[in-house]
Request: fold
Amino acid sequence: MNAYLMSRPLIVASVATIAVIGGPESLVVDATSGHVYTDLWNGSTVGVDVNTRTVGPAWSNHCNDSRGIAIDEARALVFAGCAEGRVTAIDASDGQVVGEVWELDGIDVIEFSPARRHLYAPGQISANTGIFGVSTSGELALLGIDDGTLYGHCVTTDDAGHAFVCQRRSRALDHQAAWADQVRTQATDYASRCRRSRSAFVMTDTELRLIAALAIIGLSSSPNTGYRTPAAIGTPSTL
Reply:
């Protein structure tokens, strides 16, 4: 790249304002479809056409209180994180919820790893981090719960098996190597054991079916001890 162009500061200017009634809360960009997606506070998610600047219909994301949002651009799946502790997956083609789990308490900013097909969610009230597997059609299954931090409201990933959770006292990401090692549990690493081929997603779906079957056995409508949230409510009966 031309050194002169690299040295020039980027100029950012507002070209339009789009009204999003009832929001927006969080934002993700789908460059493939030319849409951005955002949550509404009342438990809905909307898509905005970037070219026409039109707000689409509100899709129920099953949240009582919408917070974080993430996207699987390749599979046209939009994920919603709910303050009450659940995460859901929405099919962007029709707005239907295709996956839902409820394992944490106090979810805010979430993140998706395309390479591993993992969704990471921080429980800022339950002080832990949920690692969820995402099938090719959007079903969700809990892979593991690891340590987190109280009031750590956000998480990000390097898409290589490491997750980083916000730490409240410093208002910055905790980049300590020890934390990265903790989050990279057996559940986090299961995808790396799959051969990198076109059959990798099929293997992921098979593993998710087995994991979900075990979760369904213990399906409960009551919160885990000390939580406000039910355990694994809404886990699909078949994945």
Summary: The chain has four helices and 16 strands. The two ends are 46 Å apart (CA to CA). Residues 170-203, 213-239 have pLDDT under 50 and may be disordered. The helical segments are 3-7, 177-183, 186-189, 200-217.
